[in-house]
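== Polypeptide entry ==
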Amino acid sequence: MSEASAMRSVDLRSDTVTRPSAAMRRAMAEADVGDACYGEDPLVNRLEATIAERLGKEAAIFVPTGTMSNQLGLGVHTRPGDAVVCHERAHIAMWEGAGGAANAGVQLVTVASASGLPSVEALAAATPPSGAKAPRARVLALENTHNAAGGIPFSPEELAPATAWAKARGMACHLDGARLFNAATACEVRADAIAAPFDSVSVCFSKGLGAPVGSAFVTSRALREEADRMRHRLGGGWRQAGILAAAALYALEEHVPRLAVDHARAARIAEAMVRCGVARPTHAVRTNLVCFAVDAAWGTARALQDRLAERGVLLYDTGPQTGRLVTHRDLDDDDVAYVVAAFEALG
């Protein structure tokens, strides 16, 4: 068999590239639907109740994207001119089109931390002081797992100092939990244990859980009412959205238990990367993300991306010497073995 005919296509750019399984498609095709804007879609209602219960909160709203869910979190806790404190490379700071400023009218105060979880000392030093000339710090926004910091998961004990500090200052706490169930799996705790100190949580169904579309904003009943108004203002009203809610429900019920498989596969690929001397992870690999630095003696991250693409392995560069790959449910053991062999061929 020639190399060309044996070549696979293995997409490691993100866990957002997953496609619905046959069983998920059947659940979508058989969905009982209604008009969600009237509160009459039974599966949207069931999904919102299910995810609220899973996270130990009173209510939830099903929305199209994690960005919208995070924007609801900023909006319900603030007024224009307030400040939101977050990590310098948080998703809300880097990848949401300056939505905090454009939608909520808030200022993001960013804090450095190698792990993605700032210390209380760093938070206190960066947060604006009280006084008429400074913005009021209303929200602490954390991320778990932290996308830009290598998919690091934070346990309830690790999150506790920062959230306690914020609450002592009278600040609300919002969690960008796009990969919350990955964090819970890695930390071997229930998702509600991680969500407990947060006033609102964003959780995504279309990443590691494998649904095609959708996130949830999970919070109290009172804040849900205000968030619903903002959701409609942003164009997030659904009609027969039960077709998509069916996929999200299927993902919650069937795909959460297998997230540990993705984590193990990411660690296996990271080990091969180190073994061949091409690159090394920038953080301990504990979930399905591998952020890595390419050895300058070997070449650049773009060169690595291009060389692997020639073999059908897709990842992407995040800087001159850095990149990221993500494992997900559409991979199998043969795909992982193929990726390992592709790295070894470069060493």
About this structure: The chain has two domains: 22-254, 258-346. Residues 22-254 form a domain with the Aspartate Aminotransferase; domain 2 fold (CATH 3.40.640.10).
